[in-house]
Amino acid sequence: MEILVIGISHRTAPVEVRERVALPGESAFQLLETLRAEKVAREALILDTCNRTEFYLVRQEPRDDPLPHLLAHIGRLKAAPVSDISAFYRYAGLECVRHVLRVAASLDSQVVGEEQILGQVKDAYRLALRARTARFILNRLLHRAFRVARRVRAETGIGMDGGSIPQAAVQLAQEELGALDSKVVLVVGAGRTGELAARSALSAPAGRLIVANRSVQRAKQLCEALAADQQGPSTVREHGMLECTLQPDSSRKAIEWAGLDQTLTLLGQTDVAVFATSAREPILSDAGLPGAWALRDRPLLILDLAVPRSVDPRVAELPQVTLRTLDDLKAVVKQNAERRLAGVPLAETIVAEEAFRFSRWLDGLRAVPTIKLLRQHFELLRQAELESHRQEFAKQDRERLDRFTQHLCKILLHRPTSFLRHLADERAGRELEAMELVRRMFGLGAPEAGE
After folding, report:
1. Cβ contacts of residue 328 below 8 Å, gap of 6+?
2. Residue 252's closest CA among 203, 207, 222, 312?
3. Domains plus CATH for the chain?
4. How far does the chain reach from its first CA to its final CA, in angstroms?
5. Order of strands, edge to edge, in the sheet holding 208-213?
6. Strand pairing of 2-9 and 89-92?
7. Which residue out of 50, 96, 223, 409 is catalytically annotated?
8. Rg, C-alpha atoms of the chain
9. pLDDT truncated to tens, each residue of the chain (451 aa)?
10. Does the annotation mark 50 as catalytic?
11. What CA–CA distances, in Å, run from 389 to 9, 385, 401?
12. CA–CA separation, 254 and 262 (whole Å)
């Protein structure tokens, strides 16, 4: 049995390459269903975020390279072939386990210590459960990853300041435009990334925040939740609607919601626009902007945090517009990460320890079918001998003899089962040979396919 991860991330490819294999919306679910139907792997999970697309596979035994098969399906889903595989990495066995633990603990994130990735890993796990592609092995692995992430956050300092990509984006906006207390910030998208961006903007603090989303109801709910969490008073309303009971004033934080179809209009009165959608295609292009855009009298900073990108790169050519993507956040991320680096060695130690434990458990599974067959073999022999001598004993003696032979078999099997289980601990690579020898010795045969 093999556990494997194949992926692409911000460490191996720029955003224009990553977006070619990104699987937003229901695309990941569709691919999981295909993998299950075609029996590409016994188990599968897809982790798709703004910075990575990774495929976790559990296969009965290593066969052909699954990457071309995966890319072919992605090409069909996105109607665009993917042929370049140079940016993909792969890890198997212990290295695969270590990788997913590092990812969940945010040690492999663009912002080390950020909180968002753990939620994204949990979302990927829920999606695999819905697609019925996360079973025994991935269930155990993902729950181990969740536990490691909690340990790392509780026992080290890498999570201090609550670093995240949206926070880094707002910090970049402050560096380029100065204080945001007199600025209008537009957040396009009300998902997890959009919510973090909105919260970061309010903490900056922004003078006025507008949240635009395809579902206006979701945008409204987010704005109301944001207002409820504020320390001071705030005015919450639909964009373009006057406050009925309280007139907004400078002491109140203005939080507004709007529909996605109002984005172009909103950009005309915005200083900072953060795009955090899961759209498959750009929702903002240079051709879509109104002709009066060239008359804009103040700069607009657009921060595109989406993969695939939500803003066409040609928008950067418009006057008064500065466009930044995830790759432009590297300098800010590096500066923030220096404060958390002190906790990284301990976090890596925790990951290495937990990865070894899980890998040892995984290797130990190879002994389980053999141990099961061995116990069944002894039980059949025991039952056969009892039956052949049944008439030689009184009923009361037969019951005592049954208990005695059960106990005797348990004693006889203790040492060989312990030996088989502990072979994995020795990491000597002899466990499969030992299983084969035991099966031949007792004539156990091969395990059933489901074992």
Report:
1. 172
2. 207
3. 2-162 (3.30.460.30), 165-329 (3.40.50.720), 363-442 (no CATH)
4. 12
5. 234-238, 253-259, 208-213, 184-188, 272-275, 300-304, 321-325
6. antiparallel
7. 50
8. 29
9. 789 999 999 999 988 889 888 998 789 999 999 999 998 899 999 999 989 999 999 987 667 788 888 988 888 887 777 767 888 999 999 999 999 999 999 999 888 888 889 999 999 999 999 999 999 899 999 999 999 999 998 888 776 655 678 888 998 999 999 999 889 999 999 988 899 999 999 988 888 999 999 999 999 999 999 988 876 667 888 887 654 333 444 456 789 999 999 988 888 889 999 999 988 888 888 766 655 465 567 789 999 998 889 999 988 888 888 999 988 887 777 776 666 677 888 999 999 999 999 988 887 677 777 888 889 899 999 999 988 888 888 888 888 899 999 999 999 999 888 887 776 555 444 565 677 677 778 887 654 433 3
10. yes
11. 68, 6, 11
12. 18
pTM here is 0.66
Tokens linked to 408: 């005797």
Stated as kind and residue range, the H or E segment containing 184 is strand 184-188
Residue that the structure tokens 């140079």 belong to: 86
Specify the residue for token string 């066995």. 93
Residue pointed to by tokens 């919306």: 25
Task: Report DSSP state, residue 182.
Answer: T
Evaluate the CA torsion angle 347, 349, 351, 354 in order and state its sign: negative
